[in-house]
Amino acid sequence: MPDENKGEDQKQSADTDSKPVDQAVAPSPATDHVRSESAKPTEKEQHPTEYDFRKWSLRFTGALVFIGAAYSFFSYQQWQVMNGQLAMSHLDQRAWVAPSAIEGKPEQDKPFNISITVKNTGRTFALEYKLLAGFESRDLADPSPDFDADLAKLAKDMTGEQANTFGLISPQGVFTSTIKASSDKNLTKDDMLEITSPTRIMFVFGKITYKDIFNCEHWTRFSARCHPDGTYRNFSTYNKADDNRCP
After folding, report:
1. Class of residue 76 by CB neighbours under 10 A (exposed 0-12, middle 13-18, buried 19+)
2. Better pLDDT: 121 or 28
3. At the N or C end, where does the chain have fewer CB atoms within 10 A?
4. How far is CA 234 from the centre of its chain?
């Protein structure tokens, strides 16, 4: 009957609802293993050991050494550039003193004087300028002249006042000195015959000393052969100038 069947269905539903709920399933050993592994501290969570400290200390020290070496290298390169620029500036601004002209022609019944014109072609003053020059006549067969020895003898014969006399040459300025080759005596006919002899040669030589505005000492040596017609030509390798580059 319909009512009875309905009642049985309701009873079965009630019986089903009245069954006790199953308890939680116990964890398996595999699950415990996963939990134990996940519970271990990671590498980041571990405290650094003494070995780690030394390792990082060495790395840090090496980095500092590399940075210091690189800085020293670039500083040295910069210093070289600046030093080169300073040296070029000194060369550009310093005084340059050298003979610019030598004149004087031997003539009968006149004194034989030789004038030496010195010029400062630099951009600044030449300080404590001094010229020591001489004249020499010798036979062609004589040994080569020793101008340094001749200048040393001239310096020895100078008086104290002459030895301590210095000049000042302005930029592009000139200074003229005179050598009395015949000692203020007029040349005679015999003197002229000796001077014009093909076996006789005459020399003018000297040394210039001075300082530039950077307090650097300089010198210029010169020598020239004097011909009877009044021309002068450079002689030998005595013509030189210093290469002093003071700091």
Report:
1. exposed
2. 121
3. N
4. 33
Class of domain 97-241: mainly beta
Higher per-residue pLDDT: 51 or 10? 51
Report the distance separating Cα 163 and Cα 155, nearest Å: 7
Q: What is the pLDDT of residue 43?
A: 53
Average pLDDT, integer, range 93-102:
96
Q: Are 221 and 237 in contact (CB under 8 A)?
A: no
Tell how strand 126-139 and strand 200-211 pair up.
antiparallel
CA angle 133, 137, 143 (to 5 degrees): 100
Within 8 A by CB and 6+ apart from 180, the residues are 111, 112, 113
**Within its chain, how far is the Cα of 115 from the centroid?**
39
Structure tokens at 6: 């309905």
- Range 199-222 average pLDDT: 96
8: its two tokens: 């049985």
User: Please, which residues have CB within 8 angstroms of residue 200's CB and are 6 or more apart in sequence?
Assistant: 137, 138, 139, 140, 194
Q: Which residue has the higher pLDDT, 242 or 91?
A: 242
Report field, pTM of the whole predicted structure over 0.70: no
Mean of the per-residue pLDDT values of the chain:
82
- Side-chain-side CA neighbours of 247 within 13 Å: the count stands at 1
Q: Cβ(236)–Cβ(144) under 8 Å?
A: yes
